[in-house]
Amino acid sequence: MDGTRKRLSPEYVEHRLRGPFPNRVDPWAEVGRYFHQIHLGMIGSLLSQIQILLLPLGYEAGRETSLFILEGREPDLYIKHEQTLQTSTNWDYRTAAEAIRAEAGVAVEISLPEQDAIHVRDIETGKLITVVEIVSPSNKTSQPDIEAYRSRRDNVIRQGVNVVEIDATRSVKRLLQDVLTRAYAYHVAVYLPGQTGRLIGINYAEPLKRVALPLRGEVIPMELQDAYDAAYRQASIAGQIYSDGGYTEDNLPFPTLLTEPQRREATQAVQAWIERLEQLKNASE
Known about the structure:
The protein is of the alpha+beta class. Helices cover 34% and strands 17% of the residues.
């Protein structure tokens, strides 16, 4: 031994960062310890995505405190618009979303739910235009906290602010109280002042979808799976779970929300990933 630390191959590094579930949500990462890191990373990734699209339109995005945390503060990302505009309630969000080949969701009657955020503001006036909340598992546990958040969110919407809520973790208790949410593992809810809310459903093992971020009578795309992947890789979530010994059936969150074939497929994907990871590690030695 000469004291030189061995180098792991680029193939090993890439495999470890990619994890067992590329281009989809890792079901083992749907718990607070890991999802908190993904949440923070997604905010940064989404900011990087949308900022370059917003600025030419006169908006600016930024990171703020979530509506779930403090009343009177603004969520994780904000967008500003350069011109003073009156709130429009009659523009066609579905058509605008389809024009950029983004998911528009289906119209549903919903009492506004709760999550974490990105803010979009008017550059000149500082007026809040849109809030993007990313829901964490902890946001869906306390009913009093849920109701407090809903009250804040409803107040923001009444003031003419769009709200987009991204729920990328499975749970028995759903923030969005609509029968349609039970059919999907994950969903995005879009609230436009004066209009019916929209639900974008995402099935288990399906990539998170492109979503149209509403502004004032126009939209820009947000690539949710790209943001998730970037955050997942940045924090090496798969590596953390593996090192913690977390990739076991006993540690799978909400296993009853998956069918037997889905649970079997998930455990097989993990086993195959681990076996390949060990092969690559041994090849590096």
